Amino acid sequence: MSEPRLKSVQCSSPAGLHRMAYKEWGDPANPRVLVCVHGVTRVSDDFDALAGAMADRYRVVCPDVVGRGRSGHLADPRHYVVPQYVADMVTLVARVTADSESEAVDWFGTSMGGLIGMLLASFDGTPVRRLLLNDIGPTLDLAAMARIGEYIGQDLRFPGYEEGKAYVRAVSASFGPHDEAQWDKLARDVLVRLPDGQWTRHYDLNLAQPFKALTEGTFAEEQAALWRAWDAIRCPTLLVRGAQSDLLSHATAEEMRARGPRPRLVEIPGVGHAPTFVQPDQIAIAREFLTG
Predict the structure, then answer these.
(1) In this predicted structure, what is the pLDDT of residue 1?
(2) Phi and psi (nearest 5°) for 119?
């Protein structure tokens, strides 16, 4: 397996500039690009297995969304929202396709990364050529969003790595079955050691602020906007759902199949939110759609 290259690109928000880190796999001259974007508290390293498996066909680009992992933080946390992330991805796509005749990219988005891809794919002139959405859709739950805000805003410290790993494994049980080495990597990717020797999660706790600011009114407006975006998508789309997901219901997935890009739906048994795509059978699903 080839080693990834660690890079970054400068992006802007209304409050100033920030850097977004990304990992790049495969031939740096390959004009065929796959962008893989992670969930709300995860990082680019989530895609190491998938990127390694796809690097023979693609240049695979995996960013740390701002506020996570190796990326910088926003000066104003009110901008930790999907429209800002979409703007950052437009900058990233311009960077990685600068030497190509086409700005087209294929997109793999897990949860939040899927929402970013959904909005980007809905725009006129979108660079998104093929779209794989991993366990996310336009219908979300306000109470669930509030719980996410509460969870990600907790300043948790662990006396050692093993305690942090046990926590990550517990809160990630819905990811489905993994072996010990896979659980270790899933934890190590999102934990960072502090100068005092304790361990914590590797993201800006201020990510929680926009979640906490949601009201029923603004939430309803955002959800309506997501459905409008879904209905505007025209590129080939695959919708993957964990069969036990509590974030993307089967009913919502079926409604998505009947609207917008009318995607093919694949449900993965024994998994909730969200499939990690580190297992060979899951990687095969992505490879068949993206390269078949």
Answers:
(1) 54
(2) -65, -45
